[in-house]
Amino acid sequence: MKLSKSPLLSVKNLVKYFPIRRGVFSRVKGFVKAVDDISFDISNGETLGLVGESGCGKTTAGRTILRLIDPTSGTITFEGNDITKLTQKNLRPLRKKFQIIFQDPYSSLNPRMTIRSILSEALLYHSIVEKTLVDREIFRLLDVVGLQKFHADRYPHEFSGGQRQRIGIARALSVKPKMIICDEATSALDVSVQAQIINLLKDLQTEFGLTYLFISHDLSLVEYISDKIAVMYNGKIVEMGESTNIYNHPKHAYTKKLVASLPNKIFDYL
Predict the structure, then answer these.
(1) Quick one: which of 35, 37, 45, 88 could link to 16 by a disulfide (CB 3.0–4.6 Å)?
(2) pTM of the model
(3) Rounded to the nearest 10 degrees, what angle do helices 115-125 and 161-173 cross at?
(4) Phi-psi region for residue 65, left (φ > 0), alpha (ψ -120 to 50) or beta?
(5) Could you give the C-alpha distances from 78 to 43, 129, 225, 270, in angstroms and in order?
(6) Number of neighbouring beta carbons within 10 Å of residue 77
(7) Residues of the chain with pLDDT under 70
(8) Residue 270: predicted pLDDT
């Protein structure tokens, strides 16, 4: 889905290195180049798929963009504002504008809190609604992601994996974001449930005009949901373009390898 050509997010020459320390004094002996000079833009209402095998740096890229970890160098511009050097305090007003959906929905939900408490925490922290209107907003969010009102008083362990991911999506939506980073958001789910979540994400994008950075190791899944695809290998983007072109006419040797190895059967369910 494309609503505008103006970039909502612009990433330029982003680098994230992790030091390798050895010896008694923990001296730096080298660096792991997790993200090594990557650049891309994402327009309003667009989905960019970031695809690559485990360890290629795509998850680190996503978390660096969100400033969950600090970049080594490069710039991250969101809505025209360079957020690279902002303090965590100054980032707080922006946090509600870009959210993340994690790979493992169970580990990202507090097992001691009901769904009502999990969602109300986000609503109240970011002052989305007045306290008297919290329950109404929680029920609305649950309905949007295909859950029922009575689910609000249950705990995370009482749900299936697919239902927990719907709760994760509801939590992300609760702060009315403009952009969501989906970090392997379906990889822990059965194929049929993956299809349900992917279709839900597409429906929500249409309804709310959301922008996605969709991170996955599954090229066929990425091609289905994305407008553009960036292929990541050893910390670098080795190929980028329109999703159908990348999928049907890959140019880089690594992309060709990804296409050739596709066993995915998710299209049987979509």
Answers:
(1) 35
(2) 0.90
(3) 20
(4) alpha
(5) 11, 24, 22, 32
(6) 16
(7) 1-5, 263-270
(8) 58
Report residue 192 as tokens: 């049929």
> Among candidates 81, 79, 82, which has minimal Cα distance to 14?
82
Cβ atoms within 10 Å of 127's Cβ, excluding its own:
10
**Domain limits, the chain:** 1-79+183-270, 102-177
Phi and psi, residue 67, nearest 5°: 65, 30
| Complete DSSP assignment for 8-76 | EEEEEEEEEEEEEEETTTTEEEEEEEEEEEEEEEEETT-EEEEE--TTSSHHHHHHHHTTSS--SEEEE
Say how far apart CA 44 and CA 8 lie, in whole Å. Answer: 5
Please give the radius of gyration of the chain, using alpha carbons only, rounded to the nearest integer.
19
Residue tagged 């963009």 (tokens): 65
The pair of three-digit structure tokens given for residue 67, joined into one six-digit string: 């400033």
